[in-house]
Amino acid sequence: MDTTSFPSDLDIASAATLQPMDEIAAQLGIGPAHLEPYGRDVAKIDLGFLDEPHDGHQAKYVVVTAVTPTPLGEGKTTTSVGLAQGLQRLGKRAVVALRQPSMGPTFGIKGGAAGGGYSQVVPMERLNMHLTGDFHAVTAAHNLLAAMVDNHLHHGNALGIDVRNITWRRVLDVNDRALRNVVIGLGAREDGVVRETGFDITAASEIMVLLTLAKSLSDLRERLGRIVIGYTTEGSSVTAEDLGAAGAMAAMLKDAIKPNLLQTLEGGPAIIHCGPFGNIATGTSSVTADLIAMQGSDYAITEAGFGADMGAERFFNVKCRVSGLKPDVAVIVVTVRALKAHSGNYVIKPGKPLPPGLLAENPTDVEAGLPNLRKHIEIVRRFGVQPVVAINAFPQDHDSEHAVIRRYCNGIGVRTAVSRHVAEGGAGARELAEVVMEAAHEPSSFEFLYPLDLPLEQKIEAIATQIYGADGIDVSPGAAKALKDYERLGFGGLPVVIAKTHLSISSDPSLKGAPRGWRMPVREVRASVGAGYVYAICGEMRTMPGLSASPNAQRIDVSADGNITGLS
Amino acid sequence: MDTTSFPSDLDIASAATLQPMDEIAAQLGIGPAHLEPYGRDVAKIDLGFLDEPHDGHQAKYVVVTAVTPTPLGEGKTTTSVGLAQGLQRLGKRAVVALRQPSMGPTFGIKGGAAGGGYSQVVPMERLNMHLTGDFHAVTAAHNLLAAMVDNHLHHGNALGIDVRNITWRRVLDVNDRALRNVVIGLGAREDGVVRETGFDITAASEIMVLLTLAKSLSDLRERLGRIVIGYTTEGSSVTAEDLGAAGAMAAMLKDAIKPNLLQTLEGGPAIIHCGPFGNIATGTSSVTADLIAMQGSDYAITEAGFGADMGAERFFNVKCRVSGLKPDVAVIVVTVRALKAHSGNYVIKPGKPLPPGLLAENPTDVEAGLPNLRKHIEIVRRFGVQPVVAINAFPQDHDSEHAVIRRYCNGIGVRTAVSRHVAEGGAGARELAEVVMEAAHEPSSFEFLYPLDLPLEQKIEAIATQIYGADGIDVSPGAAKALKDYERLGFGGLPVVIAKTHLSISSDPSLKGAPRGWRMPVREVRASVGAGYVYAICGEMRTMPGLSASPNAQRIDVSADGNITGLS
């Protein structure tokens, strides 16, 4: 394949002939009563579909995860789309459930989350901008709560909120580093109370992940009420319910909880919903999206962010605990370039050309990177789920390099397939679809890593040692005190999320492969009580990106007839 | 009528049986090719409808304005909706074009902009929250530009922007006083450049009014490029185009430029689009909405914010100049309580009960308030437009009080009607509809107040003296210098908007009736170059509201089946 003449993602997406939405919905058994069109070629799915009588079929639940990615990503989204297209070509009812891309990166760096090449979700422009406004609804609900916090302070602070201990920030769906740390309430007396706070990107809002984990509108309403915005000087938690904000927030989100229906380039259904951050949140699409996918298909393919240590672990321990769904297969996406990078011989930086040696035929370096793949396979097996290794083929790959991966997987009894879905669409994912079907029919024995009644610190330790391979954890005094406080406040029964780098299985981004002999420092802990988890911060976590010196926004434009250029 | 048993706006709206959107659209001659459904009972109208062959009919263009309002408002929106319903009952093709309500007031104070009683636009919950996301698109495009301004500073400020002279702030669609004045860019070196700025409510965004004045997507694109974000240290203007942001902003707004179609309680079409602030912006719905209304009806009824001195003047001088449309009739909404207030004998405060004397039968006080009505009639006549006085009847009114207004209008040859559309719907607006039809068939001779080539200061003076009745204007030295700078920078040919109180025809909110013997101070001037006007600040202008001690958000909730309570 000549990459110079390969059409751009936008060109491919624009050339697609889209199927009518009622036909896409019909593939899932969704009739007009549960379908709400939202502009051309996009619809929302009413949750009432879940109350329809179930025909008794047992869908297979497939999560797509990856090895520890390079900063460029290894193609989980394209593989998810390609796998669905491949299964459809084999005559199966398959649907893919993905996250909605954030507009921050769309205008920041090249690359959305719509897949790529001939394995994309369309319409791509709608997907990458606004879609049906769910992100905007999250932004608005989040900032209404923030305004009500500051309004409460302004009008006398009857609840006794400690202004130095307000954890609720504001959010915007834009890469804007200048908003990371701000002082608000300046001006005159009527302009509020002065205090320091900041903005995160909307994907990092607790409401975004709360929306992914809510099973119904009433569940959403209750979770919103439980959101902790800060603490009183006496150390009690103050909630959105205490401020009387949760009802209005739920009203603002009543349509955002409905998953969005789009289609693959080959006319299969694609459910797009929510987009929580992969580092501090679950990094998955929603429980409601997956429930609908399971109700309406034979193969529900859902994506979990970053590597299996990150997204898949949270998918298993947090999302599946809420949904009650049991995954059958975990597809681990691997690329030749990622394994070469895990050899430790190359450094890949976003925005820079790949090191030339990385593109040369070098099965030895691929081999040297295999321990990282091995570790992700072990993680998946630890949860009792069948692993399948999907080699996402690039035109620069060499057969000898693919052979190294295949041989290794065969040796440890793991199914593997080379997938050429980016270049060839569903036809290129046929082998992958076949091995996923085989794996899905093996017996599975899904289990959580830890019971919820374990103390919070032991849950963190279980993930660090049993999933990441750490020797142990070092909890800072502040974090230890906070964990105690959380247990006192009744948050001890929540699952945990580890906020760490996605560029290593360890908490040190420079450690490649499958690091051993390290301890995980727990610098700080925070509680997303509304979403329903406690998270431990084990590294530098940026929750508001910045724009580069040459942001992608400068290359985006729209013609007089509404055609967008410059998206990728 | 017993007000205690009169159902709430939400109850009335919820009980309505809505007509299918394709039938609503068909009333305007809009077929499926130009209609994009957006969720239940809402659609967007593609601007391609304006390119359809015109059948040659000549629609009448009716603007609804008012006397100087009390802080409670006098019911322009209900009267606009009621008039359209009344005309429809007389068998006429009529459509109403209104602004979209801001979510700030929806969650702040009781009262939206959807009309009231039996003259409302439905679905009310959609109208008051998100609608099709146009406000959110404005917020996102506005804040992308802001992020690109600060990003430009961060990456070396090649354009030489003076950080002390950046006029572009940020916006959110929420009442949040704590964001009026903020310091951003705090933290470490990689967290941007420290500077003071602030947030306005989205309705006050220049992009909101720009969107109302853009005639097409290409016009929108060009106007976005002309937005001035600040000035260099040498005094040159820096635009969104200079920053390379305008194309991406236009892409984000490509659907927001399409007006939204909803319906009245009586199944007539209602076009809802944009919601620019009435004090610093035009306070009207969009040019595209009105062009569609004129193409698709015999009577296009559009609303202009506040009194005729404010909204109607800008409607005539700014909006009609862009659209090329010539208004036939201006309906001046008056209430008994407003005229009583203009007697100077009562003080009405929002959130407080009305003074009891105001509700007693008192034609003398109504008479004492007539000079205010007279002045608004004169303003409308100054533009060569036929005035019609609509008495928006309240249950507490007395016939003797209506008679005072009727007698006065008859004496000066102005048509008048009592309208009971809030209590009775279109049936209650029958008399109003009839006199509007009569007035619309009188010859009209619409003209602008000033030519665009007049110096900016003389344009401001023309409005102050000829519309407001000031003796002259007093321009501060800073404002005088800025006006000279604007002419040097090429903005001299723009029309002007006066940002002043809406509670008096003068610039002093305490002066009721038709004030004489005063001069208008021009404290400061600003340029909305993208929107296409210069505005003069002649009073305290708040562009970010605050929430009260008991905001309406605390009374809003949603049930498990999605029914919203607490909206009004």
Task: Give structural notes.
In chain A, helix 8 (217-226) crosses helix 9, helix 11 (308-323) packs parallel to helix 14 (363-382) and helix 12 (336-342) packs across helix 14 (363-382). Chain A folds into 3 domains: 8-132 and 256-440, 3-Layer(aba) Sandwich (Rossmann fold); 134-248, Domain 2, N(10)-formyltetrahydrofolate synthetase; 456-538, Formyltetrahydrofolate synthetase, domain 3 (Roll). The first copy, chain A, is α/β, with parallel strands linked by helices. Chain A is globular and about 70 Å long. In chain A, strand 18 (386-392), helix 15 and strand 19 (415-419) form a beta-alpha-beta unit. Chain A starts with 8 loop residues before the first helix and ends with a strand. Chain A has 19 helices and 26 strands.
Write the layout of secondary structure elements.
2 copies of one chain form a homodimer.
Chain A lengths: L8 H7 L5 H7 L7 E3 L5 E3 L14 E7 L9 H14 L4 E5 L4 H6 L6 E2 L2 E4 L1 H5 L5 H21 L6 E6 L3 E3 L9 E3 L10 E3 L1 E3 L4 H8 L3 H10 L1 E5 L4 E3 L6 H7 L7 E5 L4 E4 L14 H10 L2 E5 L4 H16 L5 E6 L1 H7 L13 H4 L3 H20 L3 E7 L6 H13 L3 E5 L1 H4 L5 H11 L15 H12 L4 E4 L1 H13 L6 E4 L19 E4 L1 E5 L4 E5 L19 E2 L5 E2 L3
Parallel strand pairs in A: 3-16, 3-17, 4-15, 4-16, 8-11, 17-18, 18-19, 20-22, 21-24
Antiparallel strand pairs in A: 1-2, 2-14, 5-6, 6-14, 7-12, 9-10, 12-13, 14-15, 23-24, 25-26
Helix pairs in contact in A: 3-17, 6-9, 8-9, 10-11, 11-14, 12-14, 14-15
